[in-house]
Amino acid sequence: xxxxxxxxxxxxxxxxxxxxxxxxxxxxxxxxxxxxxxxxxxxxxxxxxxxxxxxxxxxxxxxxxxxxxxxxxxxxxxxxxxxxxxxxxxxxxxxxxxxxxxxxxxxxxxxxxxxxxxxxxxxxxxxxxxxxxxxxxxxxxxxxxxxxxxxxxxxxxxxxxxxxxxxxxxxxxxxxxxxxxxxxxxxxxxxxxxxxxxxxxxxxxxxxxxxxxxxxxxxxxxxxxxxxxxxxxxxxxxxxxxxxxxxxxxxxxxxxxxxxxxxxxxx
Amino acid sequence: xxxxxxxxxxxxxxxxxxxxxxxxxxxxxxxxxxxxxxxxxxxxxxxxxxxxxxxxxxxxxxxxxxxxxxxxxxxxxxxxxxxxxxxxxxxxxxxxxxxxxxxxxxxxxxxxxxxxxxxxxxxxxxxxxxxxxxxxxxxxxxxxxxxxxxxxxxxxxxxxxxxxxxxxxxxxxxxxxxxxxxxxxxxxxxxxxxxxxxxxxxxxxxxxxxxxxxxxxxxxxxxxxxxxxxxxxxxxxxxxxxxxxxxxxxxxxxxxxxxxxxxxxxxxxxxxxxxxxxxxxxxxxxxxxxxxxxxxxxxxxxxxxxxxxxxxxxxxxxxxxxxxxxxxxxxxxxxxxxxxxxxxxxxxxxxxxxxxxxxxxxxxxxxxxxxxxxxxxxxxxxxxxxxxxxxxxxxxxxxxxxxxxxxxxxxxxxxxxxxxxxxxxxxxxxxxxxxxxxxxxxxxxxxxxxxxxxxxxxxxxxxxxxxxxxxxxxxxxxxxxxxxxxxxxxxxxxxxxxxxxxxxxxxxxxxxxxxxxxxxxxxxxxxxxxxxxxxxxxxxxxxxxxxxxxxxxxxxxxxxxxxxxxxxxxxxxxxxxxxxxxxxxxxxxxxxxxxxxxxxxxxxxxxxxxxxxxxxxxxxxxxxxxxxxxxxxxxxxxxxxxxxxxxxxxxxxxxxxxxxxxxxxxxxxxxxxxxxxxxxxxxxxxxxxxxxxxxxxxxxxxxxxxxxxxxxxxxxxxxxxxxxxxxxxxxxxxxxxxxxxxxxxxxxxxxxxxxxxxxxxxxxxxxxxxxxxxxxxx
Lengths: 267, 778
Description:
A: outer membrane lipoprotein receptor (LolB), chain A; 13-stranded antiparallel beta sheet; 13 strands; B: 11 strands; 64% helix
């Protein structure tokens, strides 16, 4: 009899633990979703001047300046990006457009001003470098939270900020990383730090949100850094002149505007 | 002075032996601290500009040395099965410690630029194993379409696939090549895989060399010991020279390690050089002791008389050999300098031990065990009979000998003019060595396993985006490709052209450098934005676009072949000045080898000439006669000419070992002449009559020389069968030096003596009784 009772108690405890665990997983995924939306879907649209600095292992810097426009078609879903390059000088007026479709291959177009030509370019590999930087295309537009299994590891402090620490493991084998650890700010839900581990389990890249500013009531990571610790090089991206909810229309993000940038958004 | 050391040794044998044991123990204790350095690049000074530039280029463009791996299938290598194997092999190779996985050049690792359905793509050529043979064939067609990959990754006929594995450091290549071989063995289904490349050859050579060392030196030692035993039939006696040889090797190597020098490929040869040279003096001593002991029947006085007669010749033969090796210190090649100095030190030790340790050791041998020593009288043995043949021949045909020598000199001079200076570390292995076979196979099918870099530098940032500059470099590339050994050249030009060609829907007219600088820049930007790896780009150009690096792939690594391409570039550059100001320099391992070879040839020439001069002056001093000095130089001159003339006729390239051996040839070939002339004079002092002197020269003296010839020459015969060519070379040289200089000495010198006997051996009064008395009294 006694044994029976003990077993019952044990079974109940196990059930509670399982539910709790499930709840924790749900919480972890919820956190990742919030972080994803906070970082990649701020406002309904946005425009910013971007300065990108690519620093190689020898300390050599390369600079890129561009205007970036973004329109969210659906929150957490389709997005359009438009990039107008200003620096380096010999690629100025070059424009680049992406139609991002979660779970599918993006569509990308490029306008080459020197030959006045618009070209579709392949988007097969989301892990390739974004314009030669340490950021990949996916780092720029985000990886959908449902593609990974998430676990809340702990609650912690990062500097003076309270954070959730979430571990993500891709559901299917993935070239980008084998494991990722994200530090999510408890107040803003922005990822403050992300650690990418390769298949050997070694740390490969570290993302950090170096500066958070309140822009039109939206907490925004205005200085971002991606370091490749294995190659000993890094890239910083600084956002200025940020403007949210300016009422962009979808027709800007068409081939026509690649050749003739929309002057109201691009100075 | 002359007698001091020997007297001391005879009177205090235990002091000498204990001291030798203690000092030897001290030096032996240094041996475990050995630091091995197998990098031929260290043939150049650490601050040698060419070497620094090579490192700078590798650093600037993040280039590593490559191991080349290839598979050849005459039925066609681009099949589903074969390409899958290659895919899986590379997957595992990428994980080897020391392999720069990101920079591997292989179908599954490189990017292809192409466009399909109007979409431009830069993506991995073979991102997953092929599903069928058609896909495999498609990969081959992509490689052929891409000037950056063509010839590198596949032969146009599709019979060969190649992979280039970059490694962190050259001296890992032997280990990594071994691990690659292991992976291949697990995947291969019997196809022929090959591993090649200069780094593997160099590193493997170092490893195999030390193994050879452990076999060759002791083996030569044992054979020398057996031969001595055959001649002198007393193990207790003949063990002494071996002790001297081993002790001098231990002292020399111990001091080398103690002074912080690394044991380089060159210095690993110290034992093999020292053992025979160290034995030479001892053989003369034993030979003389052997011939005299039964006459005197008194150990100590025999020793004294022997050393007394041999002291001066031995001193001079040792010093001349030392001079030959010390002259290597004049070469601009650090490991050769270290080698020369420490061999010289070892020879000095051997000389000193032979006049101290040998007598001390001999004193301690019981008279009982010496009872039969020298009894089996050699005066009627086969060696004696051979010497009498020499005696009779030179007496009868001295004119013929002189004429023959003149003919040899003329014929050899023609041979000398045929000598071709050339070297290639891959050819340090025999033809049937897997590395040689791999070298032949891969270079026959592909664009080449020897990678050199031609770097153009400007002071202006973005200079290399200038279309005119790019076109100039492109023309240079086409010019170099006309050279038979250049398999392919790859540069920034090829990336710009390829992107443009694909951007304009594979329009052949667009496969050219554009006219507009912005278009160049935008093509390159296009490469990066469409998924191209920026790291790939910066192997060909700096981020500032002020320097470009053209990869020049060669099918041959011989210094002469590499040099012909270097000259092509220099001539073109001189005749066609670049449109904008820029400089041009070469880098890469094969090129570095060319530079040290040139330094070595020049350095060896001056070393040989200066030691020749020093030895000549010493000979004049030794014989107190310019004429005799001159005569004594004849056998060595003829030996050097004959040997190097033969090298010219055979067509063996004058490479590093051959160059270094010239000092050995000089140092050793003079020895017999010194003994022959000096001791002939001693004999003449006793006889006073050339008619008596002449036959006497062909007794004990000639026997000692011929024993030396046979012991050393035969001792090196096993080296003919070494798997490493430089060892064969060293073995053959010892053999040839001994045979030729022995023969020349015992034919030419007697012939000259006969011709000018009145001047060289005037009749004189002799004090025979006194000499005898002196010996007996002691």
